[in-house]
Amino acid sequence: MTNGSNGYGVTLPQIRFISKLLHAHRNVEQVTRTNDIQFDLMTSRGVDLRLICVNEYTCGLAKVLEVLEDFPGTNIIYVGGAWNGYTMQAKEYCIEAQLGLFNASEINGALCHDDYWLYSRKGESGNPVYPTKAS
To answer: Superkingdom of this entry's organism (predicted)?
Structure first.
């Protein structure tokens, strides 16, 4: 385990936040942290997942592709706090690739589903609400 020194600028407090969340999640049985920002998980249903923690105010498709290149086998990209989000282009790409892309307000709910990449919070009308930002 390292101390928040990584090429993605993710600080140790951010890493500790997601680590604590994952260790306490009811659907996560096992968590192993490597490469500072990589979390390999096993869900209670026996599904292995690789979550990469980044800190992107607006995560675009270029960052998604960079993470996928740097961390083969990635299933979920966690973009950081509830104030962080992503572009709709990045989200659409991730849904098509069955790759999760979530911020802090979404990750708990997503980890409860087998089809986690499709998870979204719902608005009053029942439609998905994504924390998207302009690219």
So the answer is: Bacteria
